[in-house]
């Protein structure tokens, strides 16, 4: 009798695990991102000009409601959509720790200034 109860419990647990696996695979198919995350899809660097490197990156994000793809700490991230709409780029904290953020005059992007004086300019497309 105890063995039969144990087998039923084991069978029930196996079915439950299988159902959880099936449901999870339906909601998060291979290649899908979890909500609120981003990944870099392409990254191109052009160093053909002296003392200047142009980098272009494409990110794929799965942002939550009210968020949009942006940049936080020099990495793609989901940020408050209001920041992008109002072009208050520095509010999304795009620069690395210790760097200063400044808006470009026409608000077309931002600069990150390192303590040594090196400046990185970013203009979103």
UniProtKB/TrEMBL annotation:
UniProt-listed Pfam families: TAFA (PF12020)
Would you indicate the residue range of the signal peptide? none
Q: Where are the transmembrane segments?
A: 6-23
This protein's UniProt keywords: Membrane, Signal, Transmembrane, Transmembrane helix
* Keyword match Iron: no
Q: Which family does it belong to?
A: Belongs to the TAFA family.
Query: What is this protein's name?
Result: TAFA chemokine like family member 5
